[in-house]
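stage 2 :: seqdesign
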Protein backbone atom coordinates (compact mmCIF):
# COMPACT_ATOMS: atom_id res chain seq x y z
CA UNK A 1 0.00 0.00 0.00
CA UNK A 2 1.43 3.36 -1.02
CA UNK A 3 1.55 6.32 1.35
CA UNK A 4 2.08 10.06 1.00
CA UNK A 5 5.52 11.65 0.99
CA UNK A 6 4.73 13.47 4.22
CA UNK A 7 3.68 10.31 6.06
CA UNK A 8 7.21 8.96 5.62
CA UNK A 9 8.91 12.24 6.49
CA UNK A 10 9.76 13.14 2.90
CA UNK A 11 9.39 16.56 1.29
CA UNK A 12 7.37 16.60 -1.94
CA UNK A 13 9.12 18.92 -4.39
CA UNK A 14 6.99 18.41 -7.52
CA UNK A 15 4.68 15.79 -8.99
CA UNK A 16 6.45 12.46 -8.51
CA UNK A 17 9.56 14.11 -7.09
CA UNK A 18 10.63 14.23 -3.45
CA UNK A 19 13.55 14.26 -1.07
CA UNK A 20 14.38 13.43 2.52
CA UNK A 21 17.05 14.76 4.85
CA UNK A 22 18.81 11.84 6.47
CA UNK A 23 19.87 11.90 10.13
CA UNK A 24 23.51 12.15 11.14
CA UNK A 25 25.01 14.25 8.36
CA UNK A 26 21.80 15.94 7.12
CA UNK A 27 22.45 14.34 3.73
CA UNK A 28 19.79 14.53 1.03
CA UNK A 29 18.36 11.53 -0.78
CA UNK A 30 16.03 12.20 -3.71
CA UNK A 31 13.40 10.13 -5.48
CA UNK A 32 11.94 10.57 -8.96
CA UNK A 33 8.99 8.33 -9.83
CA UNK A 34 8.31 7.09 -13.35
CA UNK A 35 6.06 4.44 -14.90
CA UNK A 36 7.04 1.29 -13.03
CA UNK A 37 10.44 2.89 -12.46
CA UNK A 38 12.06 4.98 -9.75
CA UNK A 39 15.33 6.90 -9.64
CA UNK A 40 17.03 7.33 -6.25
CA UNK A 41 19.44 10.25 -6.08
CA UNK A 42 22.20 9.18 -3.68
CA UNK A 43 21.87 6.18 -1.42
CA UNK A 44 22.66 7.03 2.19
CA UNK A 45 25.63 6.46 4.46
CA UNK A 46 25.32 2.74 5.29
CA UNK A 47 23.69 -0.43 4.07
CA UNK A 48 21.06 -0.12 6.79
CA UNK A 49 20.25 3.44 5.70
CA UNK A 50 20.12 2.33 2.08
CA UNK A 51 17.73 -0.47 3.03
CA UNK A 52 15.45 2.03 4.80
CA UNK A 53 15.46 4.29 1.74
CA UNK A 54 14.66 1.33 -0.50
CA UNK A 55 11.76 0.28 1.72
CA UNK A 56 10.38 3.82 1.86
CA UNK A 57 10.66 4.17 -1.93
CA UNK A 58 8.76 0.93 -2.38
CA UNK A 59 5.97 2.20 -0.12
CA UNK A 60 5.84 5.53 -1.94
CA UNK A 61 5.82 4.06 -5.45
CA UNK A 62 4.37 0.59 -5.08
CA UNK A 63 7.43 -0.86 -6.82
CA UNK A 64 11.19 -1.01 -6.46
CA UNK A 65 13.99 1.44 -7.22
CA UNK A 66 15.27 0.76 -10.73
CA UNK A 67 17.97 3.44 -11.06
CA UNK A 68 20.44 5.22 -8.76
CA UNK A 69 22.36 8.40 -9.52
CA UNK A 70 25.39 9.03 -7.30
CA UNK A 71 26.11 12.75 -7.19
CA UNK A 72 29.69 12.21 -5.98
CA UNK A 73 31.78 9.50 -4.31
CA UNK A 74 31.66 10.37 -0.61
CA UNK A 75 30.63 7.76 1.93
CA UNK A 76 27.50 9.57 3.15
CA UNK A 77 26.11 9.53 -0.40
CA UNK A 78 27.23 6.12 -1.70
CA UNK A 79 27.57 3.63 1.15
CA UNK A 80 23.92 2.56 0.93
CA UNK A 81 24.05 1.78 -2.79
CA UNK A 82 24.55 -1.98 -2.44
CA UNK A 83 21.18 -2.20 -0.64
CA UNK A 84 19.43 -1.49 -3.97
CA UNK A 85 19.96 -4.88 -5.55
CA UNK A 86 19.28 -4.89 -9.29
CA UNK A 87 19.21 -1.10 -9.71
CA UNK A 88 21.20 0.49 -12.55
CA UNK A 89 23.81 2.77 -10.97
CA UNK A 90 25.00 5.97 -12.66
CA UNK A 91 27.94 8.21 -11.76
CA UNK A 92 30.15 10.83 -13.36
CA UNK A 93 32.88 9.40 -15.56
CA UNK A 94 35.95 8.70 -13.46
CA UNK A 95 33.99 7.70 -10.37
CA UNK A 96 35.25 4.16 -10.95
CA UNK A 97 38.75 5.34 -10.04
CA UNK A 98 37.47 6.19 -6.55
CA UNK A 99 35.45 3.01 -5.98
CA UNK A 100 38.42 0.67 -6.40
CA UNK A 101 39.51 -1.50 -3.45
CA UNK A 102 41.96 1.20 -2.38
CA UNK A 103 39.34 3.88 -2.82
CA UNK A 104 36.79 1.91 -0.81
CA UNK A 105 39.32 1.60 2.01
CA UNK A 106 39.83 5.37 1.98
CA UNK A 107 36.05 5.87 2.10
CA UNK A 108 35.84 3.43 5.03
CA UNK A 109 38.54 5.31 6.91
CA UNK A 110 36.83 8.65 6.26
CA UNK A 111 33.46 7.27 7.35
CA UNK A 112 34.84 6.01 10.67
CA UNK A 113 36.70 9.29 11.24
CA UNK A 114 33.37 11.10 10.77
CA UNK A 115 31.54 8.92 13.24
CA UNK A 116 30.09 5.97 11.32
CA UNK A 117 30.24 2.72 13.28
CA UNK A 118 33.35 0.80 12.22
CA UNK A 119 31.44 -2.41 11.47
CA UNK A 120 28.86 -0.55 9.39
CA UNK A 121 31.64 1.21 7.49
CA UNK A 122 33.48 -2.05 6.80
CA UNK A 123 30.30 -3.79 5.65
CA UNK A 124 29.35 -0.96 3.28
CA UNK A 125 32.86 -0.55 1.85
CA UNK A 126 33.14 -4.27 1.15
CA UNK A 127 29.76 -4.38 -0.62
CA UNK A 128 30.25 -1.20 -2.67
CA UNK A 129 30.53 -1.85 -6.38
CA UNK A 130 31.55 0.64 -9.10
CA UNK A 131 28.80 2.46 -10.98
CA UNK A 132 27.82 0.63 -14.15
CA UNK A 133 27.02 3.71 -16.23
CA UNK A 134 29.49 6.60 -16.50
CA UNK A 135 28.23 10.03 -17.56
CA UNK A 136 30.83 12.09 -19.42
CA UNK A 137 28.56 14.91 -20.60
CA UNK A 138 24.80 14.58 -20.38
CA UNK A 139 22.65 11.45 -20.28
CA UNK A 140 18.89 11.48 -20.76
CA UNK A 141 17.28 8.80 -18.64
CA UNK A 142 13.79 7.73 -19.77
CA UNK A 143 11.70 6.68 -16.77
CA UNK A 144 8.57 6.08 -18.87
CA UNK A 145 5.18 7.78 -19.04
CA UNK A 146 6.79 10.84 -20.61
CA UNK A 147 9.18 11.40 -17.70
CA UNK A 148 12.76 12.04 -18.77
CA UNK A 149 15.52 13.01 -16.34
CA UNK A 150 18.82 14.59 -17.35
CA UNK A 151 22.01 13.41 -15.67
CA UNK A 152 24.76 16.00 -16.18
CA UNK A 153 28.46 15.77 -15.40
CA UNK A 154 28.93 19.35 -14.18
CA UNK A 155 32.18 19.01 -12.22
CA UNK A 156 34.85 19.03 -11.15
CA UNK A 157 34.17 21.10 -8.07
CA UNK A 158 33.29 19.55 -4.73
CA UNK A 159 35.03 16.44 -6.10
CA UNK A 160 36.48 15.46 -9.45
CA UNK A 161 33.29 13.50 -10.22
CA UNK A 162 30.21 15.65 -9.59
CA UNK A 163 26.90 14.62 -11.16
CA UNK A 164 23.74 16.74 -11.14
CA UNK A 165 20.20 15.52 -11.80
CA UNK A 166 17.69 17.76 -13.60
CA UNK A 167 14.02 16.83 -13.39
CA UNK A 168 11.92 18.83 -15.87
CA UNK A 169 8.43 19.89 -14.89
CA UNK A 170 6.19 22.85 -14.16
CA UNK A 171 9.01 23.91 -11.85
CA UNK A 172 12.29 22.22 -12.66
CA UNK A 173 14.13 20.49 -9.84
CA UNK A 174 17.93 20.22 -9.79
CA UNK A 175 19.63 17.81 -7.39
CA UNK A 176 23.03 19.40 -6.86
CA UNK A 177 24.89 17.02 -4.59
CA UNK A 178 27.46 18.79 -2.42
CA UNK A 179 28.27 21.36 -5.07
CA UNK A 180 25.67 23.33 -3.11
CA UNK A 181 25.21 23.19 0.66
CA UNK A 182 22.64 25.13 2.65
CA UNK A 183 23.08 23.89 6.21
CA UNK A 184 26.73 24.93 6.40
CA UNK A 185 29.64 26.25 4.39
CA UNK A 186 30.49 24.04 1.37
CA UNK A 187 33.05 21.46 2.44
CA UNK A 188 36.28 21.36 0.43
CA UNK A 189 38.25 18.23 1.25
CA UNK A 190 41.48 17.01 -0.34
CA UNK A 191 39.58 15.74 -3.39
CA UNK A 192 37.93 19.11 -4.13
CA UNK A 193 38.87 21.14 -7.20
CA UNK A 194 38.31 24.71 -5.95
CA UNK A 195 39.52 26.44 -9.12
CA UNK A 196 36.65 24.84 -11.10
CA UNK A 197 33.93 24.87 -8.45
CA UNK A 198 32.40 28.27 -9.40
CA UNK A 199 32.19 27.13 -13.04
CA UNK A 200 30.35 24.00 -11.90
CA UNK A 201 27.76 26.20 -10.18
CA UNK A 202 27.40 28.24 -13.36
CA UNK A 203 26.62 24.99 -15.18
CA UNK A 204 24.00 24.13 -12.56
CA UNK A 205 22.38 27.52 -13.08
CA UNK A 206 22.36 27.10 -16.84
CA UNK A 207 20.73 23.69 -16.44
CA UNK A 208 17.96 24.77 -14.11
CA UNK A 209 17.45 28.41 -14.97
CA UNK A 210 16.17 31.22 -12.83
CA UNK A 211 12.95 29.57 -11.65
CA UNK A 212 14.23 26.09 -10.74
CA UNK A 213 14.31 24.57 -7.28
CA UNK A 214 17.88 23.61 -6.35
CA UNK A 215 18.31 20.76 -3.88
CA UNK A 216 21.65 20.83 -2.02
CA UNK A 217 23.48 17.77 -0.81
CA UNK A 218 22.92 19.04 2.74
CA UNK A 219 20.24 21.43 3.91
CA UNK A 220 17.02 23.00 2.67
CA UNK A 221 16.12 23.47 -0.98
CA UNK A 222 17.15 26.86 -2.37
CA UNK A 223 16.63 29.14 -5.36
CA UNK A 224 18.94 30.39 -8.10
CA UNK A 225 19.86 33.50 -6.11
CA UNK A 226 21.26 31.30 -3.32
CA UNK A 227 23.34 29.29 -5.80
CA UNK A 228 24.73 32.49 -7.35
CA UNK A 229 25.60 33.86 -3.89
CA UNK A 230 27.37 30.62 -2.98
CA UNK A 231 29.27 30.73 -6.28
CA UNK A 232 30.44 34.27 -5.54
CA UNK A 233 31.45 33.25 -2.00
CA UNK A 234 33.53 30.37 -3.42
CA UNK A 235 35.24 32.73 -5.86
CA UNK A 236 36.26 34.95 -2.93
CA UNK A 237 37.12 32.06 -0.63
CA UNK A 238 39.45 30.34 -3.09
CA UNK A 239 40.69 33.40 -5.00
CA UNK A 240 39.39 32.09 -8.33
CA UNK A 241 39.95 34.33 -11.35
CA UNK A 242 36.79 34.99 -13.36
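stage 2 :: out
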Amino acid sequence: MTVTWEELGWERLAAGVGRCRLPGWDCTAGLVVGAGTALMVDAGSSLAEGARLRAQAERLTGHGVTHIALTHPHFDHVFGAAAFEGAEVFGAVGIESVLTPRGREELRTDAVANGLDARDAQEAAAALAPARHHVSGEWTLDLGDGRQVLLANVGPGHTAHDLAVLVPGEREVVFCGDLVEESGEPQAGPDAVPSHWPDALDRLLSLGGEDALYVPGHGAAVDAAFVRAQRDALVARFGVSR
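stage 3 :: structure notes
- The helical segments are 47-61, 75-78, 101-113, 118-127, 197-208, 224-238.
- The chain has a mean pLDDT of 96.
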